[in-house]
Amino acid sequence: MNENIGFQLSRAPRIWRAVLDQRLAPLGLTQTRWVTLYHLWRMPDGQPQCDLARAIGVEAPSLVRTLDQLCEQGLVERCPCDQDRRTKRVHLTKQATPLLEKIDAIVQQAREEMLKGLDEQEQERLSDMLSRIEANGQALLTPDDCQR
């Protein structure tokens, strides 16, 4: 058994985010903002804040400040949920689309460069293995109640 695998699993995402931070800095985006926008773009429209927080891997209250900043920039809107007034649903604005297209192009380029030397089959195997590791890890966590 490889005892260093845990360290490798923790280093790879840090390096991934550092590369993206470096490349997205010219767009004036902090890591927190680009990660939030990118996740929102990949999720169905009108996500509850708690679902977005869970997808990003942060506590719901921690996301509030970032969403406030993105609202001020005109990139997202928060609307009350019809079924539950405690819940806010988050929507991207039309103004966010050109920025997200730039982010996506940068992310795609970085992905290609970081996966250089891995053929398509190896990339699929890696994705499958990471999905299984993630599922195993999720099963070990205590469920988190998200009220907002």
TrEMBL record:
Entry keyword Protein biosynthesis: no
Keywords assigned: DNA-binding, Transcription, Transcription regulation
InterPro entries for the chain: HTH_MarR-typ, MarR/SlyA-like, WH-like_DNA-bd_sf, WH_DNA-bd_sf
Residues of the HTH marR-type domain: 2-135
GO MF terms, alphabetically ordered: DNA binding; DNA-binding transcription factor activity
Keyword Transcription: yes
GO biological process: one example: response to stress
Listed name of the protein: Transcriptional regulator SlyA
Originating organism: Halomonas sp. RT37
